Amino acid sequence: MPDISVQRIERDLLALSKFGYNEADKGIYRQGFSDVDMEARRWVMNLMEELGMETRMDGAGNVIGRYGPKDKPAVMVGSHLDTVPAGGLFDGALGVMAGIECVRAIKENDIELDYPIEIVGTAEEEGRFGGMLGAQALAGCLTMDWLEGAKDANGVLLKEAMAAHGMNHLDALHAYRNRENLRAFIELHVEQGPVLEAKEKTIGVVDGISGVFKWMVRLIGKADHAGTAPMDMRSDAFLGLADFAHEIQRIIDEEGTDRSRITIGHVALKPGFPHTVPGEVDFTIVGRDLDGEVMKGLANACRRVLSSIARKHRLMFEYEQMSWLEPQYCSGKVTDLIEANTKKRGYSYMRMPSGAGHDVQFLARVTDAGLIFVPSVKGVSHAPDEWTHWVDVERGANVLLDCVIDLAKE
């Protein structure tokens, strides 16, 4: 069976990492629709053209290179090209560079294809503007209202950021693909967690993407003097938060599964002065599970517990649901193919869910889609010290190559 060249993948990843590299903290700053992001997209398109691929950028900013027979549904391969601030070398980029290497290996081995391959570098997956724009566009999951109003944390509108690069944000609505022109989608990605390394497995065969809900929660009490307000007469908003944090594991034990996650990731105390009892606390709750009904159970339990705690501490409880993404299972056909090719290669593997979101969760709505994980050292991701050993990159890319060839054959 043919093999990829991990040396070429390494070369391409290191070259791509220069777009947005920050010498001070060694991180990569390539946020969606920044100048450097668009420069990187043009560079990737040139790389594709050197292989004889037909390239284009669609209305959502996805860069696509097509290789093989014309006028047939394509096997799409890839991931995203943008990064979080101070991101790492592999997140997203590995899936695109490995896809390009698959085309090289297919060309070098004169492998005849019955269906074309499309390598995609999706746009704005990391959520600068609050979504996964490129994948959502491909899956037809965008609305005009959202495109008009989406903005980043600094108040920059998506439509303004796209216009700065000569793009019309409404053209993203024309990027939609369906089963008539997509045969399958497959993504290679670093795990971004510690499980594969801890279990000493080479390949993660991902069976689904966890759903996610995000709440903004506010507990309102009464600010008081920290020295004069008796402990039993306070309406301390922080104590309400602390009590809820202690209840998280019980909520999961009673309502969740071993795949459930509840996280308080951001907290703001008001007035936030050392000698003042906090009169208000604003915080986020993010819940995840691979089962939609379990997610509802977790959410309902969070609401009940917060209401009870608010009464106990004489607080008002308010919350706003910022987003709710349903879980998405991968295609059994593609997942079984990944497992079979991993076995053929003799690599160790495990079936597992993805707790993080990926492009595949939207492409799975319009075609047979699958996701391959390779280990992340110490589970680190979204950071400059994100790392995956090159031997694991090679093995993951070889499984990807085998699957792409199989999917592109009758």
Strand content: 15-25%
Question: Mean of the pLDDT scores?
Answer: 96
In CATH terms, the superfamily of the largest domain is Zn peptidases
Q: How many individual domains?
A: 2
Element string (H = helix, E = strand): HHEEEHEHHHEHEEEHEEEEHEEHEHEH
- Label the structural class: alpha+beta
Rg (CA only):
23 Å
Low-confidence stretches: none
CATH architecture designation of the largest domain: 3-Layer(aba) Sandwich
Give structural notes.
With 410 residues, the protein is an alpha+beta fold. It has 2 domains: 6-210 and 327-407, Aminopeptidase, CATH 3.40.630; 212-325, Alpha-Beta Plaits, CATH 3.30.70.360. Helices cover 35% and strands 23% of the residues. The chain is built from 12 helices and 16 strands. It has helices at residues 6-17, 35-50, 93-108, 133-138, 144-149, 158-163, 195-199, 237-255, 292-312, 332-345, 360-363, 390-407; strands spanning 54-57, 63-67, 74-80, 117-122, 182-190, 203-209, 211-220, 224-225, 261-263, 267-270, 276-277, 280-289, 316-325, 328-329, 349-354, 369-374. Strands 1, 2, 3, 4, 5, 6, 14, 15 and 16 form a 9-stranded mixed β-sheet that branches. Strands 7, 9, 10, 12 and 13 form a 5-stranded antiparallel β-sheet that branches. A two-stranded antiparallel sheet has the order 8-11. The model has no long low-confidence stretch (mean pLDDT 96). Zn(2+) 1 binds at residues 80, 91, 189. Its cofactor is Zn(2+). Keywords: Hydrolase, Metal-binding, Zinc. Pfam families: Peptidase_M20 (PF01546). Zn(2+) 2 binds at residues 91, 126, 382.
